[in-house]
Q: What sequence folds into this?
């Protein structure tokens, strides 16, 4: 997939591409094996909704989407991982407190940040990240995030990319030009 993106999207000549593998995917099984007794597994059907920065996707649409999913799937635990700072996270907790099946989960700074606003344990952060993406039944993301690839790798779950754009933000960014044909033959696009 990455080779295809490099060639077709970034116009890199195929002979200049060297496949080196993925450090993360090579080590994730070892981390799980070494820490199996400390990793918490989910015991209820769940949907993981991964948010992205509001620079790429309208936050108001993301929250609205989480609410709709919570209403239509009351038997599922909706684990919502917004990509926000600590202050916004507290505000979002208040906005979603009426939805008893929605749990807000902070993103993992060691997985997403070069610099972060809080101190954290690298070990604890990796463990929390793995627990977040293990045992996922359905993965939904605003726009696109690599977290979907990781969740699918660990959980073999279906992935849904939310491109709903009531405010025209994505259209202004020409995201409709994203090469959807490169995402695989099982991709279904719903309007």
A:
């Amino acid at each position: 997939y990455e080779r295809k993106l490099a060639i077709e999207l970034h116009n890199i000549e195929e002979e200049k591409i060297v496949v080196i593998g993925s450090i993360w995917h090579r080590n994730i099984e070892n981390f799980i094996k070494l820490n199996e007794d400390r990793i918490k597994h989910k015991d209820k059907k769940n949907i993981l909704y991964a948010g992205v920065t509001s620079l790429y996707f309208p936050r108001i649409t993301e929250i609205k989407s989480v609410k709709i999913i919570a209403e239509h799937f009351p038997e599922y635990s909706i684990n919502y991982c917004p990509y926000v700072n600590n202050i916004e996270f507290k505000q979002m907790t208040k906005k979603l407190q009426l939805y008893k099946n929605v749990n807000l989960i902070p993103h993992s700074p060691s997985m997403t940040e070069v610099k972060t606003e809080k101190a954290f344990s690298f070990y604890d952060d990796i463990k929390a990240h793995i627990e977040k993406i293990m045992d996922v039944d359905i993965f939904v993301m605003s726009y696109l995030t690599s977290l979907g690839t990781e969740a699918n790798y660990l959980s073999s779950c279906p992935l849904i990319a939310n491109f709903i754009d009531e405010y025209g933000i994505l259209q202004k960014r020409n995201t409709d030009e994203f090469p959807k044909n490169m995402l695989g033959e099982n991709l279904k696009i719903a309007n």
